[in-house]
Amino acid sequence: MRLETAGRVASTRLRRHKGRTSRTLENEAAALEYGVARNEKCGPTNGRHCSQQRGRNLETIDAHHHFWNPARGDYGWMPPDDPVLARPYLPVDLAPALQAAGVGRSILVQAAPTTAETEYLLGLADASDHVAGVVGWIDFERPEEIDTLRRLSAHPKFLGVRPMIQDIADEGWMLRDDLDWAFRAICDLDLTFDALGFPRHIEPFLALFDRYPAMRVVLDHCLKPTITDESPESFDEWARGIARIANGTTAFCKLSGLVTEAKDDWRREDLAYYSSHVLEVFGPERVMWGSDWPVCRLRCEYEEWHKTAVELVSHLSDAARARVFSGSAKAFYRLT
């Protein structure tokens, strides 16, 4: 994508009307073109194929979900009384949703900053045919963990690592010289790096990706744009930063987590401008869909988010949709 196009998209401005957030008529027209206008229904009455049926006909890999058991005691970020999150989520709980959405394989991602949880997830993966691979965790601040990383990399379902950067107070943590061993090991072992952060991490991520150009990187959750309390400034910061990463690096991006950043009464159009921008600057060849289950359950069930994602990419060609729902995950994580 040309940089001037990225700038035009990023310069979208928000306006308030009758207490609701909307965008300029120019972008409203773009949403109509992309088939994401409010209250649009799929079906024969408007000449569109039903997007839900399209989704079921696609080979689908869920590129981002979790399993956990709070009783393990290593999920310090989880509110112990949260009615949605603070309960076990295991393969048996996810199986009906995978079947309903037609998802054949998945990527299981760490949710606790312990190697013990990574071992636990690899055990679940070994017992679950649909889990194609695991993105785990090591302690980047302990160089002796190189032996742990080498050992984990020998497991056929171990794909890479994800430090929980969003929870680290130091925004430039990943650029510390004493962490160099970890990033070099990721490159040397040909592992992947899931970048979990916020828009405020765009600058340090750009520096990191420039420092290690051989590292295979994917941005989790579109770098969590501010959707609930969006403003012209927050949208511009995120959109311009995402465009710089897309144009200046080889990073991929996960179309996941957007619904969790939205309001409780979210609508598809609330997410459309973000998904459209990601698809435009990265191209479908570097975008992969993920559910972020069970975190997505804070806003909706698995099948609803999957159906919404199918609608958000309904303007793409068959080949491009196939890339978003399986091809990009296959290419990035090197799934066979």
UniProtKB/TrEMBL annotation:
Region (Disordered): 1-20
Domain of life: Bacteria
Annotated family: Belongs to the metallo-dependent hydrolases superfamily.
Classification via Pfam families: Amidohydro_2
SUPFAM superfamilies: Metallo-dependent hydrolases
Residue span(s) of domain Amidohydrolase-related: 61-335
Name of the protein in its database record: Amidohydrolase family protein
